[in-house]
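User: Predict the full complex structure for these chains.
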Amino acid sequence: MSYNLSNVLYLVTIVTFILALRFLSNPAHARRGNQIGAAGMALAIIVTWIKLGSTSWWAIALAMLIGGGFGAVAARKVQMTAMPQMVALFNGVGGGAAALIALAELHRILPPPGAPTADISLGIALSALIGSISFAGSMVAFAKLQELIGGRPITYAGQQFVNGALFLGAVGCTIALVAGVQDEWLLWVTILASLAFGVLFVLPIGGADMPVVISLLNAFTGVAVALGGFELQNNLLIVAGMLVGASGTLLTLMMARAMNRSIANVLFGAFGTVSAEAAAVAAGGEGGGTVRSASAEDVAVMLAYAHKVVFVPGYGLAVAQAQHDVRQLADLLESKGVEVSYAIHPVAGRMPGHMNVLLAEANVPYTQLKEMDEANPEFSRTDVAVVVGANDVVNPDARANQGSPIYGMPILNVDDSQAVVVLKRSMNPGFAGIENPLFYNPKTVMLFGDAKESIMKLAAAVKTL
Amino acid sequence: MSHNTILVFEVTILVLAIFLGVEVISKVPALLHTPLMSGTNAIHGVVIVGGMIVLGQPDKSAFTWIVGFAAVVLASANVVGGFVVTDRMLEMFKSRERPKKPDAE
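Assistant: Here is the predicted structure of the two-chain assembly.
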């Protein structure tokens, strides 16, 4: 296949990718868009295959079979609640592939007379650097989300210094490579330092900040792939990689804005270690309130005789896998003439839009899923807001308490409703370890217990009414 | 084409792709942010093309064999897993009830 023909066909693939993203603006067409993108990917693979001719075709086929088989099985088997770690995993392997390609390319070019041009060296070194960070970071994110390692921030003395040294080491090797030092070891050091940096930089980040981290790592892999396009002089990799890089960066900024924090603060702030200080502030400021706990029967009466009920889901919903039970309770309430909707905070859960996917899995029509801007004005005419496994995203301290670490974060104003029901396992503070004055609000009643069991009890109680 | 001409051309499309990416993504509602993440995830699986190019080189060393093979394995997992997961998610987003119980609304 000629150079021009293959590039034209790659352009077709690029168009399918753009369409795939474009179709995502409407949930009714989104699935079709994804299929178009997959077809475009298949085209790119076939074009590359023909271009390469018969060289090592069986090795390529075998590698595709192994990787593709693993990907297909893992993607089919995974529970919807485990989606964030699956996305992290698939993101990481992409970054790893970009780093390996950079390594192989340098190995091919370097032997004398070698002398790659500065831009090729830059592409190779940066692709390896960013791809390795993405790979290692994603694997740690995966391990945290899969609860293979603790989700709480892990910190130690001199952390910033070690991270900084590793990063500067990697950057230094990159500069040396670009400056023309022809030594493969420089790239090895770049990769190893970047891998270590990737691990150490995600380790201290708490689970609640995962939406930011995952979208940032997604952007990293995109950029690594685009740089791979420079080293291989391949337009398809440049455009497709950069589309992902740009979209991931934008999404990262949106998530950080939804928490009213800078990206630097999310990445290096080790959120959650401030808990002791914050608890002290909360105890001094808001303390002394009493918590009212209620039985499932009491809450069932409140819900069944309400006009409008809003469910506010959080990560606790995912942990308890209670989405189907919430849906059943909502159905029961609707059959009694109650208006039901769901208020979704942008950073509820462990990845952007996590709650929407969970509730969609439980067959909740997406017209009932309200974004924050849409949901907040509704609370003043809501009879009961039911908070299921959410905590920080409904914490009024974000509005009122300047000493709170989440001060300034936009929240769902559930306390505007007539009554608030909080489903919670115990009075332990949430993930970030921040005290929540919502629980002490006279409007609030607590229903203690596992979210799934509590919802099932509520449904049973509503049925008898 | 000289090397520099190609480079300038590449930088041009890189910059255009940045703006295009931002433009397209800003139209995606928060409702679909998870499928967006996983869909873009699948798209960067295009790195498989790079892996194929490396592994498909003639006269390669054992080192290139191993590294290229690993790259294609990882990239294939990225492509297939990414698209399948996204498809599973998007399949679930329905505007109305699935026709499970046919009683009239």
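Residues 62-92 of chain B form the longest helix (31 residues).
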